[in-house]
């Protein structure tokens, strides 16, 4: 099976962009299957830096790219991102980009609702990206969504729009907001339809054809397993399934088509937004990790919370996410520390746990149990083989592998694509 799915094994921002770009060069097709423009993937190609939110990373190198039905698509964000990339010389055309025609749309009313709820939530807020992701998924599941295919039938949208507006008007009234401006919404949809429709297709057909033809498909996950709507730190999660299983449902290729699952994990941990984070460091060490790792969100610019590597969480992610191998990223951020710590278990009152409890109150209460290892003073930045790594760094990676019970397939040692140690080629499996 030559297909590969890349998913985040922590709370997102694990450095998926670089790994996906590295794999995309050898893929015949790159597919996004969940999330939306809440994602932020940074690709460094030579002198150029590309920041993608919604578009699959393959687009930068001209690899045919697909936005699957599991994504929630803001058509205005799509247009803006395509135009921004065009200014950098990357052109997305209907030949290189296909959008699933059964993909639900994010509308301005979803963005409104996301912001209104966050503003009204005080300390309980989720810290969303305010892009309308959650409200759009709610309407999808509530069978009220307007989908890409509806853009070709706007004259028949009447009853569907009635249902959608009735729902949102009630919610908006609760926030003291005026009802949805239906005429304006329809006019905006008419305008954007001309832009989106040339990209719209039943992409499941292309995918199944590619599979039958022996093509290599790369599934590009967004966010991470700990933000998964079912398996993450609920309610501080995103509104989609971020595990590899979602690649099948979110694209229209069955589960047997997913192949090797590469989980991306940072050599330490970060989180952006609210929610529990057992190994968070609110001291100088946390500050140092953030500075060395340039830990600011690609989408919102928010400062990321930082802490030591948590092997309990990544082991859990590997299990529920279906991860075959791990790509360990940003090991160079740990260069120069006298000692490094790994969380190997939790204390919850008198109990010792080797898994993350399900209830939010317990998740917030657990105290990490650490194993301390000697650090390394040499630089690992730019290493391309094990021989380039200091012995202590190798020991650290091997210990992680043992603790998470999952082999390391790749080690990434800088944002540059070639600065990668390949242990096991995911496409060769
Ligand atoms: P939403 O996806 O905008 O609803 O946000 C829900 C949670 O997921 C918040 O904690 C966000 O910070 C987090 N989140 C969403 N997308 C990303 C991402 O691409 N990287 C990291 N965190 C994300």
Automatic annotation (TrEMBL):
Pathway entry: Purine metabolism; AMP biosynthesis via de novo pathway; AMP from IMP: step 1/2
This enzyme's EC code(s): 6.3.4.4
Cellular compartments per GO CC: cytoplasm
Keywords: Cytoplasm, GTP-binding, Ligase, Magnesium, Metal-binding, Nucleotide-binding, Purine biosynthesis
Binding site for substrate: 298-304
Binding site for IMP: 13-16, 38-41, 129, 143, 223, 238, 302
Places the protein is found: Cytoplasm
Family according to the record: Belongs to the adenylosuccinate synthetase family.
Subunit-structure text: Homodimer.
Protein name as it appears in the record: Adenylosuccinate synthetase
